[in-house]
Write a structure and sequence with these properties.
The chain is α+β, with helices and mostly antiparallel strands and about 375 residues long. It folds into three domains: about 110 residues, DNA Polymerase III, subunit A, domain 2 (DNA Polymerase III, Chain A, domain 2), CATH 3.10.150; about 130 residues, Roll (DNA Polymerase III, Chain A, domain 2), CATH 3.10.150.10; about 110 residues, Roll (DNA Polymerase III, Chain A, domain 2). It contains six helices and 25 strands. The strands form four sheets. An eight-stranded antiparallel sheet has the order 6-2-3-4-17-16-15-10. Strands 14-11-12-13-25-24-23-18 form an eight-stranded antiparallel sheet. Strand 12 and strand 13 form a beta hairpin. The longest helix has 16 residues.
């Protein structure tokens, strides 16, 4: 193998696939990235057996071939190179010779034969979604995913396509985030899968990176999603992500969302977030509990911790109804307010010990449910 390419292109390729490199070195070759020269491009692949990423960058291919090289070492080398042309060559002993101006490296590699092949995902169910829309759906749900590994079905986001709409739902048992959007194009397929958090974080990063390289007038990146019962593939601007799905039955999220709320208030998103952050300063890390007390036109936010002290703040809100007091984890409220995306937020309540709903004002496609705390 012998190729010539720019340092910028090589670094871009390594950065794209590096997140899929295995962090726990169960198999030495999984710490490597596969480099394969073919048809005027250098293809890069990395996998940890749960998720794999493939991309390609432009290159002058003098001789076709392949090699796997330790991903961290290769990344460290390329990051320190000057912005110039890079020559890559593989000798008969699986050693990569890298030359860039006056720099010369010889790095031991392993042959492609032992590198896992990314699985082919059969095109059972295929969806095409705008990258910006998909990224929005990820950001507005992923914060609610559970990190408790014993509840493995909650360690990802539930992706559902049905009736011409796509939905994403995440919950950790204390809160739930739900968003739905209209599916463009073919809308007769049905899909119910749980996508791991790591895969969605990487997809969001790829969408951002690929979109940066597109012309502004053509900035609506289309992501092709192919799903089977146990695998999912995302293709975005030539970058391919293949991932295992989380097996199991996602909880019936519709049962968690209150059907009716008799107490509704509207507040400034930024003012509510700022007041919540201030009052939360005097909460303990263990509970992080603050109380919201709504009465005519006012919302009183307070916290009281025996070994720290107490805080109280009052703000104007649009609320008419009987007084209600309810306690929430401050972090859960702030996570929602960061993602609301509107100047005002609507809060729907019923009883002090019943879950509350937070929605962006004027948006019926997104909501978050937060369970109250006993104080």
């Amino acid at each position: 193998m012998k190729v010539v390419l720019t340092r910028a292109d090589l670094l871009k390729g390594i950065s794209t696939v590096q997140s899929a490199v295995a962090s726990k070195n169960t198999m030495p070759i999984l710490a490597n990235v596969l480099l394969e020269a073919r048809d005027k491009k250098l293809e890069l692949v990395a996998t940890d057996l749960d998720m794999g990423i493939r991309c390609s960058v432009q290159a002058e291919v003098v001789d076709k071939g392949s090699i796997t090289i330790n991903a961290k070492k290769l990344s460290d080398i390329v990051r320190e190179l000057p912005e110039a042309s890079v020559d890559l060559e593989i000798d008969e002993n699986h050693k990569m010779i890298l030359v860039c101006q006056k720099s010369n490296f010889k790095v031991h590699g392993l042959p492609k034969d032992d590198f896992p092949i990314l699985p082919e995902v059969k095109k059972d169910k295929v969806f095409k979604v705008k990258g910006s829309l998909l990224q929005e759906m990820i950001h507005k749900t992923i914060f609610a995913v559970s990190t408790d590994e014993t509840r493995y079905v909650l360690n990802g986001v539930f992706f559902q396509a049905e009736g011409g709409k796509i939905r994403m739902v995440a919950t950790d048992g204390h809160r739930l985030a739900f968003i739905q959007k209209k599916l463009e194009g073919k809308a007769d397929e049905k899909c119910n899968v749980i996508i791991p958090t790591k895969t969605l974080n990487e997809l969001s990063k790829v969408i951002s990176d690929v979109s940066k390289g597109k012309e502004e007038k053509d900035n609506d990146l289309i992501v092709e999603i192919t799903a089977t019962d146990n695998q999912i593939k995302f293709v975005a601007g030539g970058v391919e992500i293949v991932s295992r799905l989380i097996e199991g039955q996602f909880p019936n999220y519709e049962q968690v969302i209150p059907k009716e709320s008799d107490k509704k208030l509207e507040a400034s998103t930024s003012d509510l977030a700022a007041a919540t952050r201030r009052v939360a300063i005097l909460t303990s890390e263990k509970s992080n509990s603050i109380r919201y007390q709504a009465k005519n036109g006012k919302l009183v936010i307070s916290s009281k911790t025996p070994d720290m002290g107490e805080a109280k703040e009052e703000m104007d809100v649009n609320y008419k109804g009987e007084e209600i007091s309810i306690a929430y984890n401050a972090k859960y409220v702030l996570d929602v307010l960061k993602n609301v995306g509107t100047e005002a937020v609507n809060i729907e309540l019923t009883q002090p010990l019943s879950p509350g709903i937070l929605r962006p004002k004027g948006d019926t496609d997104y909501l978050c449910v937060i369970m109250p705390m006993r104080v």
